[in-house]
Amino acid sequence: MAITTRNNFSDLFGTSALPALEAIFKHSLQMHPMIREKLFKTISISGDLWQSSEIGDLQNFAEVEEAADYSYVSPRAGASKSLRPKKYGLGFQITREAIDDGKFSMVADQMKALAESAMDSQEQSAMDIFNGGFGTGSVGRDGLGLFSTAHTVPSGLTFRNRPTTHVDLSPSALDAALTDFETQQIRDSGKIVNMQPRVLLVHSSQRRYAMELIGSELKADTSDNNLNSLKGEGLIVMSSPRLTDTDAWFLAAAPEKTGLKLIKRSGIETSSEECFDNDTIKYKSRYREIIGFDDSYGLWGTAGI
Questions:
Q1: Residue 233 burial (10 A CB sphere; 0-12, 13-18, 19+)
Q2: CA-CA distance, 79 to 152, in Å (whole number)?
Q3: What is the band of 21 on the pLDDT scale with cuts at 50, 70, 90?
Q4: Is 249 exposed, middle or buried (0-12, 13-18, 19+ CB in 10 A)?
């Protein structure tokens, strides 16, 4: 005669249940789309280190007379920047008693919470690059924070990607920022970087106002019926409640144009283990990556007032 024991139910929550739990986990991730991939260039690596080196640009072409020799030049080498992936993870455990009582919904809820935690951790790490962009907690190849009035290039020239005095978002401030974006950022030779901003990033509390600024047919914040020239700039508004300064706002070019880097070593994954000694089953999730920047090109920001 077969005897039903607690161990007979292990397959309901052991490895055979992982596909169902994994599906719940992945579905929860998909329910929370992230904006970081729209701001950071994603690079996948197989080792434990990613490194970039600054290379100066070349001067403009010069006229070459018939039968004359060409001029040959070498770009100036600059500083290097290394980013090393880190491991992030979290887990939870559930007792055998809960398992034996068929608390699958409880496990499913915890899997959803684990997925939400993974998503929130990754989004917060991305926004923290902007949150700390006006300090020197994280620096680029030039030894300065992401936003500065004195970024340096190998030749010794400098450029800025923030206003001299911080300013709140407004039609005039955005217009000045767009001009800065197109005229202030230079390469090693002094040539202006040919980039166009694509994203206006703001705190969630400023999203509607930002959309009015770039989406209204007429100029915002005025009784005049002037056409809104900002509408034709091709900007899209992105917002995040994870920005700590509600007055801060930023401009960013396409991810492949900026210095923002998302270095992925391994994506989000889950695993489980049954613990014999204390009658629990442990579930955990992990990923390995580092998010940061090597230079400040294609970016502009202000902390507001």
A1: middle
A2: 10
A3: confident
A4: buried
| Measured distance CA(55)–CA(62) in Å, rounded | 21
Per-state percent for the chain, helix, strand, coil, to nearest 5: 30, 25, 40
Q: For residue 189, what are the CA distances in angstroms to 55, 157, 185?
A: 11, 8, 12
166 DSSP assignment: -
Q: What is the DSSP letter of 186?
A: B
* 214: DSSP letter: H
What is the rounded CA–CA span in Å between residue 64 and residue 60?
12
pLDDT at 219 over 80: no
Look at residue 188 and give its three-state secondary structure: coil
Which string of DSSP letters, residue by residue, matches 273-294?
EEETTTTEEEEEEEEEEEEEES
The CATH class for the domain spanning 10-50+76-130+263-293 reads alpha beta
Q: Which amino acid is at 78?
A: G
- What distance in Å separates the CA atoms of residue 259 and residue 247, rounded to the nearest whole number? 23
CA 243 to CA 235: how far, in whole Å? 19
Phi, psi for residue 232 in degrees, rounded to 5:
-90, 10
User: What value does the CA radius of gyration of the chain take, rounded to a whole number of Å?
Assistant: 26
Q: Where in the chain is the domain with CATH 3.30.2400.20?
A: 10-50+76-130+263-293
Per the model's pLDDT, the better-predicted residue between 54 and 63 turns out to be 63
